[in-house]
């Protein structure tokens, strides 16, 4: 006879817990423990369609940071400006120090502008969309190579406000976990028909640091295109 009351109280407890976690994270803490002049380092792992694994490093120099925005310069010359709001982080602008050295059309370099990186909300199943590009490649023989670079709409959802992430011996608590999914199609021409592509990604953001881990997969339904795997993890060494 007490079971309905127990279930009701349990549901009420978890609702209060969610609201507490949400508003305890009310302050936008992206990069808050870092100062201008510091550098963030990441380890990158990339697995191509031939299942060949490549590993390399990537760094971000924090050029400017205050309560309203942060500006970072990536090791390849990409300059990224983030705008901070109490419940949102927005990738406001993207520039390149050496745009002539980037092997992409200009419109493909600016697709991330005005993207919402994350937003916190008390609404269940709250989602937001971001612009992205596919990077899969189709290879037909030795001389026919198609770079997709297709615009794709990614639907993102905030899955958790209090994830624990372990990176080597470092344990990061109260991380945001975000999952994104999108799909599109590519038409390389004869003899191939339409190729369907799915993009899945998961991101973890730690208080005071920002992005600490990202996993991204691009999957096609064609053997000529295959799938690729990309992993980006903060290096604390």
Radius of gyration: 20 Å
| Helicity range | 10-25%
**How much of the sequence is in beta strands?**
over 45%
Distance, first to last CA: 57 Å
Question: Structural class from helices and strands?
Answer: mainly beta
Number of strands: 14
Encode the helix/strand succession as letters: HEEEEEHEEEEEEEEE
Number of helices: 2
| Average pLDDT, all residues | 84
Shape field: globular
Strand order of the largest sheet: 6-5-4-3-2-1-14-13-12-11-10-7
Low-confidence stretches: 1-26
**Major β-sheet annotation:** 12 strands, antiparallel
Distinctive features:
mainly beta; twelve-stranded antiparallel sheet; two-stranded antiparallel sheet; 54% strand; disordered N terminus
Could you describe the 3D structure shown?
- With 237 residues, this protein is mostly beta strands.
- 11% of the residues lie in helices and 54% in strands.
- It contains two helices and 14 strands.
- It has helices at 3-24, 106-109; strands at 39-47, 53-65, 69-74, 78-84, 88-96, 115-119, 127-133, 137-140, 144-147, 151-167, 170-186, 195-206, 210-220, 227-234.
- Strands 6-5-4-3-2-1-14-13-12-11-10-7 form a twelve-stranded antiparallel sheet, with no helix packed on it. The protein has a two-stranded antiparallel ribbon with strand order 8-9.
- Strand 11 and strand 12 (195-206) form a beta hairpin.
- The N and C termini lie far apart (57 Å).
Summarize the structure.
By secondary structure, this protein is mostly beta strands. It contains 2 helices and 14 strands; from the N terminus they run αβββββαβββββββββ.
């Amino acid at each position: 006879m007490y079971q309905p009351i127990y279930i009701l109280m349990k549901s009420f407890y978890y609702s209060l817990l969610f609201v507490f976690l949400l508003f305890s994270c009310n302050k936008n803490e992206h990069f808050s423990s870092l100062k201008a002049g510091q550098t963030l380092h990441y380890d990158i792992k990339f697995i191509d369609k031939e299942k060949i694994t490549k590993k390399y490093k990537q760094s971000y120099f924090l050029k400017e940071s205050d309560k309203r925005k942060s500006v970072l310069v990536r090791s390849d010359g990409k300059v990224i400006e983030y705008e901070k709001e109490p419940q949102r982080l927005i990738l406001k602008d993207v520039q390149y120090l050496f745009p002539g050295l980037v092997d992409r059309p200009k419109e493909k370099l600016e697709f991330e502008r005005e993207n919402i990186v994350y937003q916190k909300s008390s609404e269940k199943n709250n989602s937001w969309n971001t612009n992205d590009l596919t990077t899969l490649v189709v290879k037909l023989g030795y001389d026919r190579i198609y770079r997709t670079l297709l615009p794709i709409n990614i639907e993102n959802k905030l899955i958790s406000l209090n994830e624990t992430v372990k990176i080597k011996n470092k344990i990061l608590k109260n991380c945001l976990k975000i999952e994104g999914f999108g799909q599109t199609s590519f038409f390389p021409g004869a003899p191939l028909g339409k190729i369907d592509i799915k993009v899945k990604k998961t991101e973890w953001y730690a208080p005071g640091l920002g992005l600490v881990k990202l996993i991204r997969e691009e999957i096609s339904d064609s053997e000529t295109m295959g799938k690729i795997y990309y992993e980006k993890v903060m290096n604390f060494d």
